[in-house]
Design goal:
By secondary structure, this protein is mainly beta. Helices cover about 5% and strands about 55% of the residues. It has one domain: Lipocalin (Beta Barrel), CATH 2.40.128.
């Protein structure tokens, strides 16, 4: 017999809306991301769209391509779910410096 409550299980789907409250050069901003069921994603800073792209997931690896870099260049990131509603990205490989700097180590929280 298990005392574990299934309602406390971590949702391991990236589909949906996520955010992170960050700082750049001392100025706070909000990063929001939407991952669609159609394998497209959008990124917003302070409510303004700044990136669109595509993603696929194989186990705990997310492969992404986007408009910030040549869409033919893909980045590979390990994704780790934690705290029932949060997700962290760790670079495996990505030749796009701007994307790598923005995503590597990023932790986001699922929005309700």
């Amino acid at each position: 017999m298990s005392c574990q409550n299934n309602n406390s299980k971590t949702d391991t789907s990236v589909i949906g809306d996520w955010d992170a409250h960050l700082r750049h050069n001392g100025k706070p901003y909000v990063l929001k991301a939407h991952f669609g069921a159609d394998n497209n994603y959008e990124g917003f800073t302070d409510g303004k769209l700044f990136v669109t792209g595509k993603y696929t997931i194989n186990g705990d690896v997310m492969i992404i391509s986007d408009s910030l870099c040549n869409e033919h260049y893909e980045g590979k990131y390990k994704i780790a779910f934690f705290a029932k509603d949060s997700l962290r990205f760790s670079v495996i490989e990505d030749t796009c410096k701007m994307r790598n700097q923005g995503i590597n180590g990023l932790a986001v929280k699922r929005l309700q």
